[in-house]
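Q: I'm writing up a methods section and want to include an example of the input and output format. Could you take the sequence below and give the corresponding predicted structure tokens, formatted cleanly so I can copy it straight into the document?
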Amino acid sequence: MCSVIPLRRRRRQRRPAPLRLLLLLFLALLLPSCSGSPRAADAKPIVVATTGHIADVARTIGGDAVEVRQIFGPGVDPHTHQATRADVLDMYEADLVLVHGLHLEAQMRFTFDALRRGGRRLAVVTDAIPRERLIPADASIGGTYDPHVWMDPQLFSLVVDEIRDRLVALVPEARREMDERLETLHRELVEIDASTEAAVRTVPHDARVLVTAHDAFNYFARRYGIEVASIQGISTESEAGVRHVQELVDLIVERSVPAVFVETSVSTRGLEALLDASRRAGHDVRIGGSLLSDSLGPADTFEGTYLGMLDHNATTIVRALGGSAPERGHFGRLVAPPR
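A: Here is the clean output for your methods example:
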């Protein structure tokens, strides 16, 4: 079993919604009465997904039967992203909007409410996960559960099935092809799950501590039996206090943790301070690599897929903590060896 290390965090004071967001919501309410040019009769149904994880699964299963657009691109922080005019228009035009939920898209909830009132079809895909299988979250961030469920491929398989069901309901004539692609994806997820579990077991026991920028890896930790600690909380809007950083330094020095990890969608400022403090305490910890937490890797790369994200993270973590994993990942498709 994993151990999630409880650490104190300061809560950032919540700010009122900016005028720009209020104007966007007003636009969303007006959209049903001001639709644009009609689509061609043979046009594919449009599916808009908030996260790259959801969008990639929808593309994989939907194939040529749907057009998938996504809101959060590589490197975008979903915790802080506020809907733009383009986001609102995309969601209004969509035949189906796939929302992650669990307070991940915290700054877009009013936009979602407005679109529902405007008659848009929205599906919260994490509703497919029984609540007893979720990890409770710090109530101070406004949510009840940790939203980073994609870090556990076994758990996220329930979301994959939900996405398939929503797509089949949208394009029932493509059901057979979608089911075939779903079966292939499930097989690959079982494979990467087993390979990650085996690779983590090669990491020396005392070194199985994952220190990251924010709490995005609790489901990974629970699934693969590793401790996890972070500078920020589950939401990147939380802040780390001096005492919290010192607790992390004590942990790193006491356990001789060889590496800590940056994240592509989170500022490195806190980790740099942590490295400096650890070195002053006499332990030379290094950055073990850059993990894909709240977003996927670059488009048109294996890391830019959900499966590739899982492979990249597992390979980077295991190799940096002293374990054994193939240089280019389990599937041999990583663009470059992880740092």
